[in-house]
Amino acid sequence: MDRRSLIKGAGIAGVLAAGVAPAVHAQPAIRWRMATSFPKSLPTLHGAAVKFSETVSALSGGKFEVSAHAAGELMPALGVVDAVEKGTLEVAYTAAYYFTGKNPAFALSCAIPWGLRTIAMAAWKRHGNGGKLLAELFNKYNFRAFTGGNTTMQMAGWYRKEINSPEDLKGLKMRMGGGVFGNAMAKLGVVPQNLPGGEIYQALEKGSLDAVEFVGPADDEILGFQKVAKYYYYPGWWEISADTDYFVNNAAYDKLSDENKAIIAAAADVAGRDMTAKYQALNPPALQRLVAGGTQLKAFPKSVMDAGFKASMESFEEEREKSEDFKKIYDDLREFQKGQMLMDRVTELPVMEYMRSVKF
Amino acid sequence: MDRRSLIKGAGIAGVLAAGVAPAVHAQPAIRWRMATSFPKSLPTLHGAAVKFSETVSALSGGKFEVSAHAAGELMPALGVVDAVEKGTLEVAYTAAYYFTGKNPAFALSCAIPWGLRTIAMAAWKRHGNGGKLLAELFNKYNFRAFTGGNTTMQMAGWYRKEINSPEDLKGLKMRMGGGVFGNAMAKLGVVPQNLPGGEIYQALEKGSLDAVEFVGPADDEILGFQKVAKYYYYPGWWEISADTDYFVNNAAYDKLSDENKAIIAAAADVAGRDMTAKYQALNPPALQRLVAGGTQLKAFPKSVMDAGFKASMESFEEEREKSEDFKKIYDDLREFQKGQMLMDRVTELPVMEYMRSVKF
Lengths: 360, 360
Known about the structure:
The structure is a homodimer of 360-residue chains. Helices cover 48% and strands 14% of the residues of chain A. Chain A has 360 residues and is α/β, with parallel strands linked by helices.
């Protein structure tokens, strides 16, 4: 495979030169490589890889180093999970739902339509059953997951024409993150394309895509989608939140000392917490700039929301039928979500509605 | 002061015996003590102190130890900030708004009425101006803050009688967390009492309190408020979210190596992220048990929300007039909040409303 020859060809020196060089306090005793699925231009997704790398160095006093490599530097954006599974790479930093071709249940570690909010996703993984169930899943592929940051709730993406009814979605060639919502959108007539972030703009520009959803204002503005599509829709019901994951090869992990194991887990928390906060802080001013620059911000009409909801629920039933892994983890997530929605309805939802009503 | 003699009298052995003993991998080169404002019975707030302690030990391979002491073990719950300011204690783990008597701007590190949501609070502190402004404030008191977990949005508390109008609040002796919302509630005729968590139940039981707000279902159930008050109100507009802080004495911190400085920051992230997730996971089943046990869950009527909103805004204006620190940080928070609410209204709010509408 191209990926392997690229790794071989580059050699250690080339690999280190291409990656982020963390501050070095001592000669590192352990050198790991991390490859991501994200372009270097994004301070959010790529920034979280750099932050992870810097944190491992800082916590180990420079004795443990994990170099961070953006998509394409060591291997293609969507090759990172295979590499961690095979042990040719120690860490993959990615969005699990890119890999539903491997197993549809991977989506449940990242995002599903009408899924858990950012804050609830962390709760399900850490203090519900989510973390344990996903660990069993990933163990089949020889790696373990450390939850990174969350993109916070996403937008419904960029369209060249208005979406006034479900009919308007039919035949749209649309980039989307992958996973179950690709299937749901396909039911609505969309032709989903799973392109990594760094390859979308060009496809949109040359007309091989009609629409694109990536993340939200902060990332989308940098990737330049506003230059080629005018209408920016919300809400992104297929990504109420989306977790990233640091996938660590089991054999490499098992060789670490207890201290270095704790460092890996802590680095994921440090980088993850920072990334979620960064999205939440960068999105509003980016949205304001986009709108000032001519982007038309639009809400999906109720007919589109209803059609999306129905198509999603049908897709979930199909996935449950097809995959035992999906069924087990999905059902647990939905059970957990019931309690979350109960609490939401006596906490954040009424206060958000009240504040809107008084035009705060 | 009692506190000091207690510390002196206990000696190192007594202090360590009383605190949490972290897993020891090596003879610790550095031993610090952390005192909290919270009772040991709470797996959330006290659990976050224990998690911090364990994380420092794990990340340092046992060479750095921070013992965790619940309220009253080393000093009274509300004595911890003075101790860190004076340098008789290295770390205080607390809720900053307990200390608005010292400076009203302390509330802005924790919670204010109609404030930022959990996810937005982290964004303001890390990628807005919040963290820098609060660091300047706390530096006047010889310490720095590392944000811990967030309680997530709180309930409006426990009442012995129904609250059907603002009139029903008049004269209520009510325990509340302190800070600006005490002043706002006082405008509505409430007599606010700032009691630490571990002392509330007894006061409520013996009738010296009519009502109490503490946090939310998970903590409140453990503290037993449902045994002495029947009505549980929402939404807790005075604590849309509430951050905890690890306050670290500057002189002690400055003596740390870069590695140990990174360990302190990482431990706050690890423990903080865990605590927020724990609240979010434990609250729903606790609420369900409370309601099954006879608790009456009630929404504040609009007249009470309106009166609370008006009283809050008046209180904020008064604080802005009185305190330059408060004005500077408060104004920045509100400016940041505008962007947050814009994003909320194209992301989580419409999708939460839609999901409620389809009875998901």
